[in-house]
């Protein structure tokens, strides 16, 4: 019997498997539903260069142990280093740097005053009670002008209309810029306060981001089965069915969406109901060949009249390329204007109010059956790839002890 059966050859599964391999453990098998590895971080050749089919993914520099591990497969000299340049298209005439709170100084004086007055009156600056629902929290934290002009319309485009189904427990991902820092930025004409994620990042010199994961998969190619979508997990026998073939192991490490599995045999009825409450969004990536005369790596678009919520200017981070691609919530796609599109049915886990309770119950129970959830989908957490790698390394290290 195998010791480890790993479901999914994305960043979580590949990291866990390669960490085992590097430490002398070879009793594992990875099941991957697609014909290639990489998950949401796959890349494809489009119009003479690489395009990341899962949207924008970059290697953050903030976790040196993660980078040290990943550079074993794709050495540092094969990466370009970037200082993040991301912008917000507030309206037709105002393109400013992200995050908005640190960069309203780039707007005209009258607009700056309106934003500052709105922020200083926000509940968080008036000792108001912190709300538990997403929309109310945004107004409480940032004031009505930032909420109305940017945060609410942008998040509706990205996550869908029912924003108050979202909790607030995950909002530490937002840059925490205080009113004092915003004011200081306006006075000094320089951004102050916390920087967003990927403030500094790596991107491959000659490839798309997916190249890294292809190399990791190649190291363990004898331990991967492709075109093997999982249809059943049997918790009573610690086994999995994929393509009508049954696989058994001492431990199952699942990195795939819980609600993508047709049959979860042995899961109590109450947990089955909770799993059905887990929500996610789907996105379409669409490529356009013309270059935009801008130096940004990516731009956020809150304008509800535009279907997409973000564009990534490929020619500004991917060498010898042209064009850009858009990211659009699949519910907002009305027509296709580019000549390439890719649909990701599982793009972002939604951080709904009840999700933490659901996942605590589910992961605790499944662990008691030697089935362990890992990564963005195994834990239903909006992890970036570097965070996913870190947690996968820690889990593998713990299980090897």
What report would you give on this structure?
- With 401 residues, this protein is of the alpha/beta class.
- The protein is built from 11 helices and 20 strands.
- It has 2 domains: 282 residues, FAD/NAD(P)-binding domain; 103 residues, no CATH class.
- Strands 1, 2, 10, 11, 12, 13, 14 and 20 form an 8-stranded mixed sheet that branches. Strands 8-7-16-17-18-15-19 form a 7-stranded mixed sheet. The protein has a 3-stranded antiparallel sheet with strand order 5-9-6, with no helix packed on it.
- β3 and β4 form a beta hairpin.
- The protein is globular, with a radius of gyration of 22 Å.
- The model has no long low-confidence stretch (mean pLDDT 95).
Question: Summed up, what is this model?
Answer:
It contains 11 helices and 20 strands. It is 29% helix and 24% strand.
Corresponding CATH superfamily of the largest domain? FAD/NAD(P)-binding domain
CATH class wording of the largest domain: Alpha Beta
CATH topology of the largest domain: FAD/NAD(P)-binding domain
Give the domain tally. Answer: 2
